[in-house]
Amino acid sequence: MSKHIRTRSVHSGEEKDREYRGIPPAIALTSTYFFKNVDELQRHKDQTEPRQEYGRYHNPTRAVAERKLADLEGAEDAIVCSSGMYALTVTLMRILKPGDHLLILDEMYHRTQDLCAFVLTRFGVEVSVVKSGSLDSLRSSIKENTRLFLFETPTNPHLYVQDLESIAALCKERKVKTLADATFASPVNLLPLKFGIDIVVHSCTKYLAGHNDVMAGVILSRRSIIESIRELHFTIGGTLDAHSCYLLIRGLKTLPLRIAHQNASAEAIAAFLVAQPGIEKVFYPSLSTHPNVEIAKRQMAGFGGVISFDLGSAERAKQFVDALSIPYIAPSLGGAESLVIPYSVVVPPSPKEVESGIFAIEPGLVRLSVGFEDREDLVDDLSHALKTL
Ligand SMILES: *Cc1c(COP(=O)(O)O)cnc(C)c1O
Fold first, then answer.
1. Model's pTM, two decimal places?
2. Pocket test residue of 88, 105, 109 for ligand 1, highest count of atoms within 8 A of CB
């Protein structure tokens, strides 16, 4: 961790001693590895000669991606796997057993909520919800059988930022493990392990690969935890192929450059949006109106490329999004191309919310992921779309 992240993102995890003298790491296309004779196989099975055996367990290209990501996150070890959802699933499966109690945050990616509420509960895991930003809510939710607190920071879609130091201290005292999905931050902006969080998960599909072309996930922690998760991972699969690992490595080389650009563009665009009439509220962690601005500024080196804003109604959000010309209308975030979605179309309000008129997510909320385009061009496009309302 001695060199700057811009140096480490290019070089770390890559062996200088290669089979041939190419600059980029090789894409190791093999699903299995041969043994010279049965004795060699026997020595491997007796674990006197550790080496690669089969593609689900080991791949040299994947190993480069794992070493690089572990270095960037300041983790002892990493598992690169097939998606962000798989990374969460295998981690939760390894830590929890029937009868255990899991705490989750009240705002998270909707599939993560589904995984906890509908899948883990079928396997006898008890799940309770903790209020974002409330240490009291966390403290009073911890029970005798509470094993783990799973949360995002910043959250999707309101970009709420959690106070990692306080969460880690409280959970350590109560012997509850902490698992942070830090996809929206990336290791350039936030290093949760430094604040005492036990395990970090990212959807590499977003900023880490960064080009809207790969699906991948990563789990990062100290060696003992990663080794115990890896055992289960080797059994249930969720393997990432060498081509995707290569694209992830290639993406990581430019990660700090891309994030610096996206941070700066999103801050400028958030400031522009705040000043526009017809927008009820803008959510971006560095805005003085954001509920977690102080924690965000204390913890984070930058605030990411996602901005959410409320246009007041679902109809206005739809009209605005249709009037934009640069961003694609698509879920996901963090890549080269700006992406935009009217959030309530993707995650519709529940019948209870419609009946009560009290929504967890504002019907007029638009989520914008700022890409690598010129920020003046994006501001012009947003400005034009706002004028059509
Ligand atoms: C996208 C996303 C996931 C899921 O990751 P996939 O790579 O799509 O499986 C999990 N958490 C957050 C915060 C995400 O944005």
1. 0.97
2. 109
Q: Is pLDDT of 19 > 80?
A: no
The verdict on domain 5-253 having CATH code 3.40.640.10 is yes
Average of per-residue pLDDT across 213-234: 98
Separation of 333 CA from ligand 1 center, angstroms?
A: 9
- Tell me which amino acid residue 65 is: A
5-253 and 255-387 agree in CATH topology: no
Hey, how many other C-beta atoms are within 10 angstroms of the C-beta on 285?
A: 30
Which residues are catalytically annotated?
Answer: 56, 109, 181, 206
Give DSSP secondary structure letters for 3-53: S-HHHHHHHTT--SS-SS--SSPP----SB---SSHHHHHHHHTTSS----
Contact residues of ligand 1, CB 6 A cut-off = 83-85, 109, 112, 152, 156, 181, 183-184, 203, 205-206, 215, 217
Instruction: Output the CA–CA distances (angstroms, integers) from residue 327 to 228, 341, 371, in the order listed.
Output: 42, 9, 8
**Positive or negative CA dihedral for 368, 371, 374, 377?**
negative
DSSP code at position 328: E
Nearest to 290 by CA among 379, 179, 159, 167: 159
Strands 339-342, 328-329: pairing is parallel
Highest mean pLDDT among 7-21, 33-47, 162-176: 162-176
By percentage, how much of the chain surpasses pLDDT 70?
A: 100
Domain ranges of the chain: 5-253, 255-387
Closest approach atom of ligand 1 to CA 152: 13
Tell me what pLDDT residue 31 has. 96
Nearest CA, atom 2, ligand 1: 203
Fold of 255-387: Aspartate Aminotransferase, domain 1 (3.90.1150)
